[in-house]
């Protein structure tokens, strides 16, 4: 049993990026599948409440707090390790928190194909 746990731990450490990508793909597939229930009708209101909540959180004070916290934590780690890449990573993560939902919405809306009936 202990050998199995060690092998599993080694596998997870070796393939961490692939497993995270698999998790993201599974979450996306689940959301896509859930949003396309009820057959052929367009169900735009299925996730509207969730989208509005996430949008209000990100553009509200909590989003500003999360972005600032990411930057400050990355700055502290960068100073402690004397590595500028940690600070750059914190800035990028803070920008993703601040502008990520708008970018995703823009990408999704630009790729939708509208069929005239």
From TrEMBL:
The organism of origin for this protein: Aquella oligotrophica
Record field: transmembrane: 58-80, 87-108
Taxonomic lineage: Bacteria, Pseudomonadati, Pseudomonadota, Betaproteobacteria, Neisseriales
Protein name: Conjugal transfer protein TraA
UniProt keywords, alphabetically: Membrane, Transmembrane, Transmembrane helix
Protein origin, superkingdom: Bacteria
